[in-house]
Design brief:
The complex is a heterodimer.
Chain A: H1 3-9, H2 25-37, E1 41-44, H3 49-52, E2 68-69, H4 76-89, E3 95-101, H5 102-107, H6 110-119, E4 124-129, H7 170-175, E5 181-185, H8 190-202, E6 208-213, H9 217-220, H10 227-236, E7 243-246, E8 249-252, H11 262-266, H12 277-299
Parallel strand pairs in A: 1-2, 1-3, 3-4, 4-6, 5-6
Antiparallel strand pairs in A: 5-7, 7-8
Helix pairs in contact in A: 2-8, 4-6
Chain B: E1 3-8, H1 9-19, E2 24-27, H2 34-45, E3 52-55, H3 59-72, E4 76-80, H4 82-87, H5 89-97, E5 103-108, H6 122-125, E6 133-136, H7 140-155, E7 163-168, E8 176-181, H8 184-190, E9 208-209, H9 215-247, E10 255-258, E11 265-269, H10 274-286, E12 291-296, E13 298-300, H11 304-311, E14 316-321, H12 332-341, E15 350-354, H13 364-380, E16 387-388, H14 389-395
Parallel strand pairs in B: 2-3, 2-4, 4-5, 5-7, 6-7, 11-12, 11-14, 14-15, 15-16
Antiparallel strand pairs in B: 1-8, 6-13, 10-12
Helix pairs in contact in B: 1-2, 1-7, 3-5, 10-13
Classes of the chains: A alpha/beta, B alpha/beta.
């Protein structure tokens, strides 16, 4: 049975009527992970795209077959920790899961998430990184790539600007909390993602964290039929590599047969269209250096 | 059998909370609340309570953890003060609008700036419109008893609101008094097991909590929330009577009156300063002044009818506040009491007074001055500007 047959046999947990943008790979991601997680799940969707498109629901209608709620932008992990403590207190097994954007995870919600990771709260935290506050029209976040245009890092008429600072390396920050399981995922690699959700669900001794790199079609200016292709290019260029950290041991999950230049990945995105050759070369160098560091961590075993 | 102990206010709060058997406790230390967290974690370490504890990284998370646990069906307790309460503001508001029966002790402490650690209810009074029930208490026995009562109140099906039990930092939190600790069986008899029906995150009965909600429905939420407060207005008095019947102690419910049946003017206080106010009333009465005392206990819901009943028909009233309503220039509860009096056919002179800010002592001299100010208003028939008690006596 291949991965698609397997997923087809699992129940769709998310409403068919949610209003994500055409081609949205975050919608694909949440549908996939929720099929794997199944009905014995309590789902937190903080303010962000998936809240905005209606996964928590509108008025009296729910967007999920599981219990679902809106935590605050900055308290996702803590609210989930409280829910999990209740179910541990009464001795009942339930998947307690966050599906949160980079703003709610790496910026405003980082303190709560870091605290829950340190305390070992037994929650599964999934961060979809679309590099900005997309639900409010694409403002910069701590995970926006350097150079990218956003509505708060504008590009001048002369073609200069974009974000001046580097992207926060969020999966590495979470890995350094020494949690039992940390893995990166990508919507172009569904089997890999499903395997990682299953591993994360099996964690019983602390917080499991999944990081998904989700290029945003609307915000980044990617053609809607290039959703998966652009996401794959992020992996094939080593810009967003697939790896996991199991109890401190790093493991690379995918090695491109032929690594493509970062330039190929950024060329999918209008938000990088103003970058000159030097700026693109800088992104390439940083990607190479981070890739090298990751390889060394993996070699340490 | 109850046990007689010597406890400081924080131990009384921790003891009261422990007797209520919370399922989940989350708290973050802040002066002067810190010992509450230490006592509860020690109770847990010693196997005296079965609660699940979470030693969170901030007050934001303390309120968020208990909110999550309460949403899943737990009885929950936490405690904070001052800046910690301010940091909680976002989930604090959320806890009441989700109608979660959380009980939180607030060990009242001034808000900075300037940097301060000492007592004053400015912290909790500033969030009186965030939907919680707030009860302010006078001594350590009242802390313990009110926490037990607070869970009954919060979990009542017609109320379903979180409750703050507020007590003055240091004056109560760090001062030891005789406290009668009820036995577990009698608390269990007063406070049944909590079974949530209105809201619960449970895969057996999937529910969407807080989908995006339009104004017409949100209006319904707010209306019902106010109805919960109206129900609490009745229930606080009823529970006080029930508590008195079972435990032999009464605090008057929403307010407590002292020497007020034959009074011609009323002094209003709240919290620990009420002790010295009683002494001052006795002294003033010995000197021939028929002053009465009104201790405000519930600030939310505001006991308008009982306040009016206690003040109407007198010649003047004065309020000593340990807080400031910026922009009004008076204390905070003064505004509330004056609002309650409006339109009740009792436009009597009102004297706003502020004392004890930043934990300054409110002494018998201050209270005697307060009573003098009230009688000046009785004689002139006019309301006063705000009297700053500590400034009048300590600086002059």
């Amino acid at each position: 049975m291949n991965i698609y047959e397997k997923l087809a046999m699992q129940e769709e947990m998310i409403s068919p009527g949610i209003s994500a943008c055409v081609g949205c790979n975050v919608e694909l991601t949440i549908r996939t992970v929720m099929r794997v997680l199944g009905p014995n799940t309590i789902l937190a969707i903080p303010p962000g795209c998936m809240g905005g498109v209606g996964v928590v629901g509108w008025d009296k209608k729910s967007g999920s077959k599981t219990p679902v709620f809106f935590p605050l932008l900055d308290n996702v992990a803590s609210m989930l920790a409280g829910i999990k403590l209740h179910y541990e207190h009464i001795g009942q097994k339930v998947n307690v899961v966050a599906f949160a954007g980079d703003g709610a995870s790496a910026d405003a919600g980082l303190q709560c998430l870091s605290g829950a990771a340190e305390r070992g709260d037994k929650i599964l935290y999934i961060c979809y990184d679309n590099e900005g506050y997309m639900n409010t029209g694409y403002q910069r976040s701590g995970t926006t790539t350097k150079g990218a245009w956003t509505s708060t890092t504008p590009v001048s008429r002369q073609g200069c600007g974009g974000k001046k600072q580097d992207k926060k390396d969020f999966p590495m920050i979470m890995a350094m909390h020494d949690i039992p399981y940390m893995a990166t995922c990508n919507p172009a690699f569904i089997k890999d993602m499903v395997d990682k959700v299953e591993k994360a669900m099996a964690v019983e001794d602390g917080l499991a964290f999944l990081y998904v790199y989700n290029p945003c079609l609307t915000g980044w200016g990617i053609q809607s039929d290039k959703s998966i292709e652009s996401a794959r290019a992020a992996v094939d260029s080593n810009f967003a590599p697939l790896y996991e950290v199991i109890n401190g041991t790093f493991k690379l999950n995918y090695q491109p047969k032929e690594t493509i230049p970062v330039k190929n990945f950024v060329s999918y995105c209008k938000k990088f269209s103003h970058l000159n050759d030097l700026e693109i070369e800088n992104l390439q160098q940083q990607t190479d250096s981070k890739w090298h560091r990751l390889q060394m961590l993996c070699e340490m075993g | 059998m109850p046990e007689i102990k010597v406890q400081n206010g924080n131990m009384a709060a921790a003891t009261g909370a422990a007797l209520c058997r919370p399922d989940v406790i989350a708290a973050y230390p802040i002066t002067p609340q810190t010992p509450v967290v230490e006592y509860l974690t020690q109770f847990k370490a010693d196997g005296e309570i079965e609660s699940t504890m979470s030693e969170v990284e901030s007050e934001l998370s303390a309120m968020s953890v208990v909110t999550g646990a309460s949403l899943a069906g737990s009885r929950t307790f936490t405690a904070t003060a001052s800046q910690g309460l301010a940091l909680m503001y976002e989930p604090y508001f959320r806890a009441s609008t989700l109608r979660l029966p959380i009980v939180m002790a607030v060990v009242n402490r001034e808000m900075i700036s300037p940097q301060t650690l000492w007592g004053g209810p400015q912290d909790a009074l500033c969030v009186r419109d965030a939907g919680w029930i707030q009860i302010y208490v006078e001594d350590n026995q009242e802390i313990l008893d009110t926490i037990i009562l607070a869970f009954r109140l919060a979990e009542d099906k017609g109320v379903l609101l979180p409750v703050n039990v507020c007590y003055d930092g240091f004056y109560l939190s760090h001062m030891s008094e005789r406290v009668e600790v009820p036995d577990q069986a009698s608390v269990d008899a007063f406070l049944p097991h909590y079974v949530p029906e209105h809201i619960k995150l449970d895969p057996v009965r999937p529910m969407s909590v807080d989908p995006l909600t339009n104004g017409y429905l949100l209006t319904e939420y707010r209306l019902r929330h106010t109805q919960g407060h109206q129900r609490a207005l009745k229930l606080i008095d009823e529970l006080d009577a029930e508590f008195a019947n079972q435990f032999g102690r009464s605090y008057g419910g929403l307010v407590e009156e002292y020497c007020n049946t034959d009074s011609d003017a009323v002094l209003v206080t709240m919290g620990s300063m009420t002790g010295v106010a009683r002494e001052a009333v006795d002294l003033a009465r010995a000197r021939g002044r028929k002053i009465g005392l009104l201790k405000l206990r519930a600030v939310r819901p505001f006991p308008g009818a009982r306040v009016v009943k206690a003040i109407a028909g007198r010649k003047a009233f004065g309020v000593v506040d340990r807080s400031v309503s910026f922009g009004w220039g008076t204390g905070i509860t003064f505004r509330e009491i004056r609002s309650a009096m409006y339109g009740e056919g009792s436009n009597i002179p009102a004297v706003p007074m502020i004392g004890g800010l930043g934990g300054e002592d409110v002494t018998i001299e201050h209270m005697m001055l307060a009573i003098d100010c009230i009688y000046q208003a009785v004689e002139s028939g006019l309301s006063n500007e705000t009297v700053w008690l500590n400034k009048e006596i300590d600086i002059m």
